[in-house]
Amino acid sequence: MRKIKIFDTTLRDGEQSAGVNLNFSEKLEISKQLEKLGVDIIEAGFPAASKGDFASVAEIANVVRNSSVTGLARSVKGDMDAAWEALKDGAEPRLHVFLATSPIHRQFKLKQTKEQVVETAVSAVKYAAARFPIVQWSAEDACRTELDYLAHIVEQVIRAGAQIINIPDTVGYITPIEYGNIFRYLRENVPSIDKVQLSAHCHDDLGMAIANSLAAVEAGANQIEGTINGIGERAGNAALEAVAVALYTRADHYKASTRLNLKEIKRTSDLVSKLTGMIIPPNKAVVGRNAFAHESGIHQDGVLKEKSTYEIISPDLVGVSENSMVLGKHSGRHAFRNRLQELELKVSEEEANKLFITFKALADKKKEMTDEDLVALVLEETLSE
Ligand code: KIV
Ligand code: ZN
């Protein structure tokens, strides 16, 4: 099994979600939970962005010992100096420095030629490598960059001292096959590529962030970046919990694993949702309220007979106590009887059959039949006898 490192940027890219603003103690609480979850790297913030960011990155670097802590910096000395001050006392000071490489960014944002961008990147990486033991370099908007130019600049920054090369799909534009091909191209066309680790960083604008991250693993990436619950700029980043569970569940296919303690997923997801105020959609993979809920009669009957009929992930794996049978208009007799038993509502076979007819009529009018509804139904039936 190949080991895939998990780089969590909930506190940096995740905090860039519109409307999210975490305070010092909230960031600290999340970072401690991320450490428990077992993420390899925590991107704690952007130290040059504000005094608050600086203070929280410094505190997290001091407190967290079992995950490596990093901070983001643009390719300017001031940003890298601020990051060094914040991170220098950490267990493994690591800088994440980036520069945009795509034609659109070169022309409109940086106003630099291809050659100037290479020069800026190389001198930033040299400056960083003279201070930090570990330097990660990101080619912002890599996926809209000419492939031969991307390979060229990657080779130059490796020679300048970068140990991790990140290929962000900054605008969530790429498809899984194309993304995998970028990694394959770099592995074949960058002479020094074997000296570094390759990292994937995907945004979800077209809903492909998780699939793209997994395609990168197939193409040789050994680090995946993302956030808890997939929060982040615009439509968000790759949801790390789903990436990790996909790698675990389909280990037969990916032949790769992470060191995450998957049982901590639910707790981490709930904490991030509570502190950021970003509500988790019920149908969200792995952590949504409905991720382990079965509603239709056919599915409920199957799961009651043998869970694996409709469950590929055991709820217990990610720290959810049990699956749930939601009773509604699609539910069948088997789940209905089962729930009555769980609620210790004792009824005869004949009563149960009568109750099921009333239950179905009521369920047709309601989204969900609650336990209280069932108790009321049984009481009504037994009182009317
Ligand atoms: O999406 C992106 O390009 C980023 C970089 C700063 C890595 O978040
Ligand atoms: Zn990003």
Keywords:
binds 3-methyl-2-oxobutanoic acid; 385 residues; two-stranded parallel sheet; eight-stranded parallel beta barrel; alpha/beta; 12 strands; 14% strand; single chain; binds zinc ion
Describe the structure.
This is 2-isopropylmalate synthase. One of its GO terms (biological process) is L-leucine biosynthetic process. Catalyzes the condensation of the acetyl group of acetyl-CoA with 3-methyl-2-oxobutanoate (2-ketoisovalerate) to form 3-carboxy-3-hydroxy-4-methylpentanoate (2-isopropylmalate). By secondary structure, the protein is of the alpha/beta class. The protein has helices spanning 24-37, 51-63, 77-87, 103-110, 114-129, 147-160, 176-189, 209-218, 240-249, 251-254, 265-276, 297-305, 333-342, 349-363, 371-383; strands spanning 2-3, 5-8, 41-45, 68-74, 94-100, 134-140, 164-169, 197-202, 223-226, 256-257, 293-294, 324-325. Helix 1 (24-37) packs parallel to helix 2 (51-63), helix 1 packs antiparallel against helix 11 (265-276) and helix 6 (147-160) crosses helix 7. The radius of gyration is 25 Å and the shape is elongated.
